[in-house]
Amino acid sequence: MDIFQEVAKRCKGYGDRSQESVRDPLVLAKLFDIAGSASWYVTEYDPENHIAFGYVE
To answer: How many domains is the chain partitioned into structurally?
Structure first.
């Protein structure tokens, strides 16, 4: 599975700054490192540059 394609598919229609003014943005994907403690919650994704936006916990 190509992670970029999967995230792009889930985030279609939620490009750069599309949820910037949304009070409770929709999390479209959760990424995590099985060897670490951080989780990334993706709310927007730019498929051309492979840049994700969201929250890190």
So the answer is: 1
